[in-house]
Automatic annotation (TrEMBL):
Single annotated GO MF: metal ion binding
Transmembrane segments: 6-28
Name of the gene this protein is made from: ARL10
InterPro entries from the UniProt entry: ARL10, P-loop_NTPase, Small_GTPase_ARF/SAR
PANTHER family: ADP-RIBOSYLATION FACTOR-LIKE PROTEIN 10
The organism of origin for this protein: Loxodonta africana
Pfam families, A to Z: Arf
Keyword annotations from UniProtKB, A to Z: GTP-binding, Magnesium, Membrane, Metal-binding, Nucleotide-binding, Transmembrane, Transmembrane helix
Protein name (database record): ARF like GTPase 10
Endpoints of the signal sequence: none
Residues binding GTP, per UniProt: G85, L86, D87, G88, S89, G90, K91, S92, G132, N186, K187, Q188, D189
């Protein structure tokens, strides 16, 4: 049978996707580009950037007796962290918890970007989530070469989609062979969660080039039940600070 020509709807959708990709990319370059001269203005933070200096997390990376005067925000250099992972893995929750906000009750998919800006002693950290739904994964690769670290969040209890997560992760690894990667094995609080050893094997992390910095951290960013005084977010944050320093 001869191939059918693309229908107008398919062409329109393709065009819309291309436009969306370009807009996202231009926005990223304009907003987080390394060479930009314009400083961030909190009044323009319409997409959810966090202008506030938060009390808890910016001391997590510091020994307690090293209290120094903090530099002004506008003097700080910037670092960019891209937060990716399949839909529902816990990316938005991670950003919320880092911002000192409580996790939301239920899954509210990110239909585009989500970001927070966290000032630390020596630099500001921009964390950018791109939603993990299938149509948004296409754009992930456009951003990996623009950032300092990739955080890839995995739902440890989602056995059905683990191979999909593996494929998406390795596509990103192939795109930038030098980018440090922190894989977060989230939802360890769930009884069906895979262990870190199992995830390391199933995600193909052992086979990765030893030159690359790859870390696999267990976490329960928003544990469903009590008994998790140390859900792991602090460890992830400390590791990020080390990698970004
Ligand atoms: N049990 C458990 N649930 C969690 C944990 N972390 C996040 N969740 C839940 O997982 C669901 C999805 O979390 P989100 O942070 O919205 O997921 P996401 O990765 O941002 O998803 P998309 O925006 O669709 O790509 C929410 O109901 C969270 O409360 C965890 O450590 N344990
Ligand atoms: Mg999200």
């Amino acid at each position: 049978m001869a191939p059918r020509p693309l229908g107008p709807l398919v062409l329109a959708l393709g065009g819309a996707a291309a436009v969306l990709g370009s807009v996202l990319f231009i926005f990223w370059k304009a907003y987080f580009g390394r060479d930009r001269e314009q400083r961030w203005d909190p009044s323009e933070a319409w997409w959810g950037a966090e202008p506030v200096r938060l009390p808890e997390w910016d001391t997590w990376g510091l020994p307690e007796d090293e209290e120094e005067e903090e530099p002004a925000l506008e003097e700080l250099e910037q670092r960019e962290v891209l937060v990716l992972g399949l839909d529902g893995s816990g990316k938005s929750t991670f950003l919320r918890v880092l911002s000192g906000k409580p996790p939301l009750d239920g899954h509210f998919p990110t239909w585009g970007f989500n970001s927070v800006r966290l000032p630390t002693r020596n630099f500001q950290v921009d964390l950018l989530e791109i939603g993990g739904s299938q149509n948004l994964r296409f754009y992930w690769k456009e951003f990996v070469n623009e950032v300092d670290v990739l955080v890839f969040v995995v739902d440890s209890a989602d056995r059905l989609r683990l191979q999909r997560a593996r494929q998406e992760l390795h596509k990103l690894l192939d795109k930038d062979p030098d980018l440090p990667v922190v894989v977060v094995a989230n939802k360890q609080d769930l009884s069906e969660a895979m262990s870190v050893m199992e995830l390391q094997r199933e995600l193909g992390l052992q086979a990765i080039n030893s030159q690359r910095e790859v870390f696999l951290l267990a976490a329960s960013i928003a544990p469903a039940g009590p008994g998790f005084n140390d859900p792991g977010t602090v460890h992830i944050w400390r590791l990020l600070l080390q990698l970004l320093s």
